[in-house]
Design brief:
The protein is built from 10 helices and 13 strands. Strands 1, 2, 3, 4, 5, 6, 7, 8, 9, 10, 11, 12 and 13 form a 13-stranded mixed sheet that branches. A hairpin with a 2-residue loop joins strand 10 and strand 11. Helix 1 packs antiparallel against helix 4 and helix 2 runs antiparallel to helix 3. The longest helix has 19 residues.
Length: 334
């Protein structure tokens, strides 16, 4: 069966049409994004409006690949992706319950993902597909990925309450290191640290940006320059510098995702510096700084299989409040 026939069959079963995202204006998807923004706030304490506004700008340019589900003229869901060289990243999928249809929003999300995955896997030049659907609980949308050969990794969303925070025992900074806030000139040094720290790490398999200095630099520009992961907070972000060499031994980067909630976008320690309590030191310093600014919570995400990191976060008063999936597909020869 051709892809177009299959999409029509799915649409008929759900009384839905699955249409090209590029046929839709920002105005037509605005109510759906407003609904999604409310879910981000309720589930993750995250102000999704900056990301939604950025997405609306792309929609009006009519260049964003993806699909929209429409039921009786009403937009019920959408999915989109972005291309990065040989890779496609499925950025988001969201659906609301359609009217007069015996299905769920998960059914609609599944149909949208099936269409997009089929498109991407048959697109010349796309050798890798990644996705981290932060909003959706672990396993909720796994089926279209599993049946199409994706690997799935459970990730955890963890939260630390800063209002009732109990200060941790003070950890002395080693004499050979100094700690300071982020500066504009730190991109290159931070990129070198990230790519070295994640060498052969599970997370570099999930996100191939970590595998090179240039990829890590793109990652840093995304979290520092753009609001997709919140508004970067250089004052709360910290670097550990080796004295006399200006080489980075560790870092923690933090962004404001809501007026009173911050999110750790990156934390890593150089391999040769591990076991000295530096990760805990960075977390405690960042949390103390945020608390003085009036923040009430600090969140982060971590791969469940990264047991050392999960253990560190538990010891520093983070609790698991949500889990979600990271998905990966790579084209094989033959």
């Amino acid at each position: 069966m051709r892809a177009s026939d299959r999409r029509r069959g799915m649409a008929s079963a759900l009384q839905l049409e699955i249409l090209d995202l590029r046929h839709f204006s920002a105005a037509s998807l605005r109510p759906l994004l407003e609904s999604e923004t409310r879910v981000w706030s309720q589930r993750l304490e995250w102000d999704y409006r900056p990301s939604a506004n950025l997405l609306l700008q792309y929609l009006d340019s009519r260049v964003l690949p993806g699909y929209v589900a429409v039921e009786n003229g009403r937009v019920s869901g959408y999915v989109f992706c972005v291309y990065e060289d040989h890779k496609a990243v499925i950025g988001d999928v969201f659906a609301i319950l359609p009217q007069h249809v015996s299905s769920t929003s998960t059914d609609i999300g599944t149909r949208l993902l099936e269409c997009l995955i089929e498109l991407l896997q048959h697109s010349p030049g796309v050798d890798r597909i990644e996705s981290q659907l932060l909003l959706h609980p672990h396993g909720e949308l796994s089926r279209p990925f599993l049946v199409n050969g994706f690997s799935i990794y459970q990730r955890l969303f963890m939260r630390r309450d800063l209002l009732g925070d109990i200060p941790q025992p003070f950890i002395t900074l080693p004499a050979d290191l100094e700690m300071r806030a982020w500066r504009e000139e730190d991109f290159s040094g931070a990129a070198r640290l990230i790519s070295a720290a994640y060498s052969s790490h599970l997370d570099s398999h999930i996100n191939d940006q970590y595998r090179s200095v240039s990829g890590s630099l793109r990652f840093l520009h995304n979290i520092v320059r753009f609001p997709g992961c919140g508004y970067f907070d250089p004052a709360a972000s910290r670097l550990l510098i080796r004295k006399g060499s200006n080489e980075f031994a560790g870092l923690i980067l933090c962004s404001r995702v809501r007026e009173d909630v911050a999110h750790v976008t990156q934390i890593c320690i150089a391999k040769e510096e591990r076991g000295r309590g530096l990760g805990r030191m960075l977390i405690e310093d960042c949390a103390a700084n945020l608390k003085t600014q009036g923040y009430r919570a600090l969140t982060l995400t971590v791969t469940a299989g990264n047991e050392d990191a999960v253990s560190l976060y538990r010891r520093t008063n983070f609790q698991i409040t949500h889990d979600f999936d990271a998905m990966l597909w790579e084209r094989t020869e033959g």
